[in-house]
Design a protein that fits this description.
254 residues; 3-stranded antiparallel β-sheet; 4 helices; 12 strands; 24% helix; 32% strand; globular
């Protein structure tokens, strides 16, 4: 009888072979498409992977809340949507670094408060710029109520709340995709929902004006804070949103 290791080797080799075959097929398709585009004078220069393109996708903004073992927390998310209507199901994607993610994984329940155009930047700062591992976000926070499932939802700057029970949790590496059925839902106001674009245009503070033109500065892509200087310290933390140096971009003021 072969050992378990010997039994797995053919499968592993097959998987590697299939992966290699698909990679080769993909590269051949890309090369062929590039050659066709060049011949027709329509080649745009190849793959650019400009991540700013993702900002053109339409997103809403939400406060994702959960509770486990007597601890409440909430965080800002931008990926939530209905996936079926019989039964009513939604999907939400949450970064594993968020403390609220861990509470939802353990409890199997969560609320999604839908942020409206009436939301203030303080809501984003409160639930997005600090960790529930370090602070109790609901201590002294009055703009909330508990729903029928015992979880908090946000009452200020929101137009609806969805209470959900997790059916599936899909591991996406840095994030978890939750598929959940709705146990309850409530309309809170008729103010339009805040989109990601609306947040950047109307809620997020405008970038500070540097003191002089032609100067090199570092701008936080999260909140717009400006650090003036040729080099940004590797351990720099944004004093406004608490994000690290990796969330700063180098720009020259014109």
């Amino acid at each position: 009888m072969s050992t378990p290791r010997e039994e797995k080797i053919p499968f592993i080799l097959t998987a590697i072979s299939l992966t290699t075959a698909w990679d080769e097929l993909y590269l051949n398709i890309v090369k062929k498409a590039a050659s066709i585009g060049t011949a027709a004078g329509k080649n745009d220069g190849g793959i650019t992977m400009d991540t700013k393109t993702l900002f053109n996708l339409t997103y809403g903004l939400f406060v994702f809340t959960s509770r486990f073992d007597g601890k409440d927390s909430g965080c800002i998310i931008n990926t939530a949507g209905q996936v079926t209507d019989t039964p009513n199901r939604i999907s939400v994607t949450v970064n594993k670094a968020n403390f609220t993610h861990d509470l939802a994984m353990k409890s199997g329940i969560f609320n999604v408060s839908i942020l409206s155009e009436a939301a203030s930047f303080d809501t984003f700062r409160h639930f997005g710029f600090q960790s529930g591992r370090d602070v109790d976000k609901f201590a002294g926070y009055d703009s909330c109520q508990r729903s029928g499932n015992g979880l908090y939802y946000i009452t200020a700057g929101t137009n609806g709340v969805l209470s959900a029970k997790v059916e599936q949790a899909v591991d996406l590496g840095t994030h978890t995709l939750f598929i959940a059925t709705l146990d309850d839902m409530k309309v809170l106001s008729d103010v339009p929902s805040a989109t990601y674009a609306y947040y950047h245009a109307n809620i997020k503070p405008k970038p500070q004006a540097p003191k002089a033109k032609g100067k090199t500065v570092w701008r936080c892509v999260i909140c717009g804070y400006i650090y003036e200087g040729e080099e940004l310290p590797a351990d720099f933390i944004c004093p406004l949103c608490k994000h690290p140096a990796s969330d700063f971009e180098k720009v020259v003021v014109e």
